[in-house]
Specification:
Blueprint (H helix, E strand, L loop, with lengths): L9 H22 L11 H15 L15 H18 L27 H32 L13 H13 L4 H18 L2 H22 L6
Length: 227
Amino acid sequence: MPANTPALSPAALARCIPFFVFMALLALRGYLPENLGIDARWIYGVQTVIVAGLLAWYWRSYGELVRQTLPDAREAGWSVVIGIAVFAIWVQLDAPWMQLGTATASFVPLDAQGQLIWPLVLLRLAGAALVVPVMEELFWRSFLMRWVQHPAFERVDPQTVGLKAVVMSTFVFTLAHTLWLAAVVAGLAYALLYRRTGKLWTAVIAHTVTNALLGVWVIATGRWEFW
């Protein structure tokens, strides 16, 4: 962007702060020294509560999530279908060459006997299915994709966003995920859905469906590397 690009607006900060707090706590979870005697898995619960609180605090700043922008039945249906499709593709794209390193904060909600710790499981599932989709779609699509189109992103109609903004925002989205090829598919699917409908809720719904199905699948199969 040009050197004289103005500082982030309050609307931009409302979309960025929850995301960056989430990422900071994720890093803390991954690099917390073991000798502190703290079970880092519980930090995810704190992470979820804090980010949910920030989203609630800034909620009035999210004009694209007011009642008037809810999708109609057809749009909601397509969102669900796309969310299911992304999940089905995501779990197939885990070959070594499709991965960017390893996750810094693994999450295996098992006790010493290998039994599920259900409070941890439910916290993770709630965070992934209810909090993360709203937080990420506000940051990646509502803010970043439109900001790439024009720094005055609030005035950008998502249906007018060009290919450059879709590709660049998806590229950065990909860097935040270990399974890079799966992230490309998901990022493009959510971005194009938002662009097609002009309603952020469609991307949120699709993202929610993907994450909820992935969570249930991980619990059922024990494929914790996907979490």
